[in-house]
Design a protein that fits this description.
Distance between the termini: 43 Å
Number of domains: 1
Shape: globular
Oligomer: single chain
CATH superfamily: NAD(P)-binding Rossmann-like Domain
Order of helices and strands: EHEHEHEHEHEHHEHH
Largest sheet: 7 strands, parallel
Bound molecules: NADP nicotinamide-adenine-dinucleotide phosphate
CATH topology: Rossmann fold
Mean pLDDT: 97
Number of strands: 7
CATH class: Alpha Beta
Strand content: 5-15%
């Protein structure tokens, strides 16, 4: 299903994006890998080779998703690579570790720039390409935090809720044009997300916390996402901790869920 497809992944230098790159490479896709750190993208490209991708099958395309000026040129380069973009995986993101009262507005704005406006800007740039093709697939790595609000994540939860709303609404707009939309809602996955999360003053949290350290293996997570995309799922929950049950509790017993999260540390 992915053989010969061109798939553009943001946040491909680490974590879920990196693991997805390996899965798509093994499935025979051509890849465009984006993130800010060139050397990490080159490392991922080299490792895609071990999954069977040739050097010509992977384009490294450094991009800061918050830099709108770069987005048009990057989209042209991504499209120029194979003449089309079959899938955009909007996966770049940063998290938060701070209480609302301690969080500067600049930190909230930064979270929204990366997690919301960066994704919207890139999606808007790629959408006309897919409309011209008459097909395409928009994928976004949202989060369980896009469904449930928890302590120390007011900005992150707000951003991920925004992404769920944006992509659900987009799906309704583009379904008749042959363009699919998939939202992914991971629980805790073992990546560098906590280390790079923002504290209230905008500095990095700088360490792995208990939830992430005990989270799902990222390779396993990527396999679940691949299976979900293959099955044509519109929403892909992925994780193996109690946070996944919380999704169900929120849906059917919201007041129970609100009480549960108040008690969480
Ligand atoms: N791990 C979890 O438990 C979890 C749970 C739910 C959702 N998610 C979501 O999954 C996605 C991937 O996160 P991860 O867990 O794999 O964390 P990660 O290992 O920290 O990866 C984050 C990726 O985003 C990229 N990135 C950050 N800021 C960027 C920017 N301004 N422009 C372009 N790329 C940027 C980073 O690359 P550079 O630093 O090289 O730019 C990196 O490749 C995020 O959207 C995150 O919110 C993660």
């Amino acid at each position: 299903m992915f053989k010969g497809k061109t798939i553009w992944i943001t946040g491909a230098s680490s974590g879920i994006g990196e693991a997805l790159a390996y899965e798509f490479a093994a499935a025979g896709a051509s890849l465009v890998l984006s993130a800010r750190r060139l050397e990490e993208l080159e490392r991922v490209k080299a490792a895609c080779g071990k999954q069977g991708a040739g050097a010509d099958d992977v384009l490294v395309l450094p991009l800061d998703v918050t830099d709108e000026a770069q987005i048009a040129a990057a989209t042209k380069a991504a499209q120029g690579f194979r003449g089309r973009i079959d899938m955009l995986v909007n996966n770049a993101g940063i998290s938060q570790r701070s209480l609302c009262v301690d969080t500067d507005m600049a930190t909230y704005r930064r979270l929204f720039e990366v997690d919301v406006f960066g994704q919207i800007a890139l999606t808007k740039a790629v959408l006309p390409v897919m409309q011209d093709q008459g097909s395409g697939h928009m994928v976004v790595t949202a989060s369980v935090a896009g469904k449930i609000g928890v302590r120390q994540r007011t900005g992150y939860c707000a951003a991920k809720h925004a992404m769920m709303g944006f992509f659900d609404a987009l799906r309704a707009e583009v379904a008749s044009e042959g363009i699919k939309v998939t939202t992914i809602t991971p629980g805790f996955i073992r990546t560098n997300i906590a280390t790079h999360a923002l504290k209230g003053d905008g500095s990095e949290f700088g360490k792995v916390d208990k939830n992430i350290a005990g989270g799902m293996d990222v390779g396993k997570c990527a396999k679940v996402i691949m299976r979900g995309i293959e099955k044509g799922k519109k929403e892909i929950p992925v994780g193996e901790g109690s946070e996944m049950k919380a999704l169900w509790v929120k849906r059917f017993f919201p007041n129970t869920l609100f009480k549960m999260v108040e008690k969480m540390g």
